[in-house]
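Thread: Chorismate dehydratase, structure

OP (GT): Posting the sequence first so everyone is looking at the same thing. Length is 273 residues per the record. Can we get the structure tokens written out before standup tomorrow? I want them in the notebook alongside the other entries.
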Amino acid sequence: MSLVVGHIKYINCAPFFHYLPECGFDGTIVDGVPSHLNRLLAEGGVDLSPSSSFEYARNWREYLLFPELSISACGPVRSVLLFSGRPIETLDGDHIALTGDSATSVNLLKIILKEFYDLRDVRCAVPAGPVEAVMAEGGSALLIGDRALKSAQEKAAPYIYDLAELWLQHTGLPFVFALWILRRQAAREKADAVRTLHGQLKCSRERAFASLENLAKATPEREWMGEGGLVDYWNCMSYELGEAHLEGLRLYFHLCARHHLLDEEPELHFWGG
Ligand SMILES: C=C(O[C@@H]1C=C(C(=O)O)C=C[C@H]1O)C(=O)O
């Protein structure tokens, strides 16, 4: 049975997807921003997707995790950025504009504000207009993905904070933005196709990292990122899911629960083949 797979339309996903057809994948791909794919996962509109790690925690009883794969950062991530007209320490009582695209990073931002900076009264909300307009007027905004990379290139605010870098400074751990989340139902009903896809994803990632230069040449965003810029960006991401990543992930979920962003800490259940 053919799989329906979500695809985050950000450059950071290219190492998982670019060589997927050459690695034998012939299922259906559905594009979207993370919040859209989170909803499709929860409702059964896709069988599996790289999606917000926060979404796994929110509905973990419905899901399994693909082992060994993630979209993480072990230092600066460069595409999850708080843009601000003022230093972060002075933001209490202020607003931060959100895009509505994210789940993990929004909650990471709330943890950073409360846990690391002891700022108890910062209101985070999606404004009526584009967040870029809020930034142009000197307000604060959280951007993720390609929009964050573009605004950083344009130096869109006097203060720009990289959330993965702040996380590392305060915890010493990697941060896991996205996990490969599989619906339990698909694991049961499409077991063979799921097993094949796990191998194909590792194949695509391996081909990508065999020559990031070749991947950059074939990526349309080279027009504004430059080939060298793309290679640097992929090199600063981590696509693995090792012990340190899992420690960072558990700590994130623990802090989400402590600050009432989650009702409970999820158990981590992995797909076993
Ligand atoms: C590193 C990133 O992580 C993304 C952030 C996500 C979120 O905040 O929910 C979800 C998926 C990731 O692609 C990014 O897109 O810049």
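GT: Both are above now. Quick notes for whoever picks this up: Residues 70 and 179 are 5 Å apart (CA to CA). The chain has a mean pLDDT of 97.
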